[in-house]
Amino acid sequence: MSVGSGRRDQPRVRPGRPRSEESRLAVLRATSELMLEVGLRAMTTEAIATRSGASKATIYKWWPNKYAVAVEAFLSELRVESPDPDTGSAAEDFRVALRGLAHFYASASGRVLAQLVGEAQFDPVVAAELQDRLIHSRRDVSRTIWDRGVARGELRGDVDPEVGIDIVFGPAMYRLMTGYAPFDEAAADAVIDAVMPGLLV
């Protein structure tokens, strides 16, 4: 899943002893569980430490705040739900990725992500974590799909890739944030079927 510089989706690691992968996963699991149980605002670093077995000092050595931990927990889930499928077809790659995003957004974790996006509108620290760790990483995956499609002669090279990515994935975020209507696999397929004819060569 790492593309571009290959480092955007990595958490900020402060100087010191390298962290244990087992402890890291325990912290991310604890964070995911607590976000579902008590919500993003009520979740505390103390609670994450207690549940994961890692000390607060250790958590703060690896992440600057609880929102940074939350963002990495979301990113870990998205790696599973919506990876870069590389099917050999740009249209199918986007379809698979968008279906995975639909699964995530429809889950309890997706509803907590909406809370995080809401927090980002008022807190620049949260906004920076969301942009640096989650949004850029996910757009890198989308850009990889796009660039492959252009290189294979499937997608139009005269379309701004940032606009094309917005067109494909924007409806999912719109429905997540507004609650206008569910975004499920059928909706994902409808988006792909509607937009791809305008993006294909």
Element-by-element helix/strand order:
HHHHHHHHH
Give the overall silhouette: elongated
Secondary structure tally, helices: 9
If you compute it from the alpha carbons, what radius of gyration comes out, rounded to the nearest whole angstrom? Answer: 18 Å
Low-confidence stretches: 1-11
Report the sheet with the most strands, covering strand number, pairing sense and barrel closure: none
Structural class of the secondary elements? mainly alpha
Count of DSSP strands: 0
CATH hierarchy, class of the largest domain = Mainly Alpha
- The CATH homologous superfamily name of the largest domain equals Tetracycline Repressor, domain 2
Strand content: under 5%
Q: CATH topology of the largest domain, what is it called?
A: Tetracycline Repressor, domain 2
Can you give the helix content as a percent range?
A: 55-70%
Q: How far apart are the termini?
A: 26 Å
**How many domains is the backbone divided into?**
2
Mean pLDDT: 90
* Level-2 CATH architecture of the largest domain: Orthogonal Bundle
